[in-house]
Amino acid sequence: MLLNTDIFYFLLGFLIGSIPTGYLLTQSIGDIRKFGSGNIGATNVLRYGGKFLGLLTLLIDTAKGFITIVYFHTYIQGDVSDHTYTIMMGTATILGHIFSPWLSFKGGKGVATTLGVAFAILAAYGQKEIFFLILLVWILVVLFTKYVALGSIISLVFLVFYSFFFLNKFFIFFLFITILIAYKHKDNFERIKNNKEHKIIFF
């Protein structure tokens, strides 16, 4: 019975994560997958759907990761610091976002949803200021390089190193997710290497 319950909640987290935010928000301009990089994430939405839709996509995708974990532990499982279920629900939500069944299992790249999960975990352990440090790393890298992909991976690598020393029970989880997300960005890094990656301009 417990196993069946765990499977149910895993699938629930997967389905919540699978909501294709960027795809749904940009219906007025067409299929976002046919623009730019073809990704449904906030960066591609920002480029072709505008700043408002880009920011809204970022916030909702982040909220999917944060709310799923907090709600699950608050109303169903108990303490959010129960790392076993946190990892289960975090993994389910992130995988749902990356492999959305509504888009033939081709969703986003998982960065925003992962950050939402990370914020929920860090807040539960009284370390939410580290989340803002992670954001600062992302902002600084993107400001200096203009490459969102580079900022995303470097900020996640920072999270992996932090978890190794201060949140060891989540180290393997963050390492696995970072490797997966880095793999999903392989085309971006190939374009960066060939100086063909789009650069983001904030102002």
In whole angstroms, how far apart are the ends?
55 Å
Shape: globular
Number of domains: 1
Order of helices and strands: HHHHHHHHHH
Structural class: mainly alpha
Characterize the structure shown.
There is one protein chain. The protein is mainly α. It has one domain. The chain has 10 helices and no strands. α3 packs antiparallel against α4, α4 runs antiparallel to α5 and α8 packs antiparallel against α9. The N and C termini lie far apart (55 Å). The mean pLDDT is 92.
Task: Describe the structure concisely.
This protein is an all-alpha fold and 203 residues long.
Name the descriptors.
203 residues; mainly alpha; 10 helices; 71% helix; globular
Blueprint (SSEs and pairs):
Blueprint: H1 2-17, H2 21-25, H3 42-49, H4 51-77, H5 83-98, H6 111-124, H7 128-145, H8 148-166, H9 171-184, H10 186-193
Helix pairs in contact: 1-5, 3-4, 4-5, 4-6, 5-6, 6-7, 7-8, 8-9
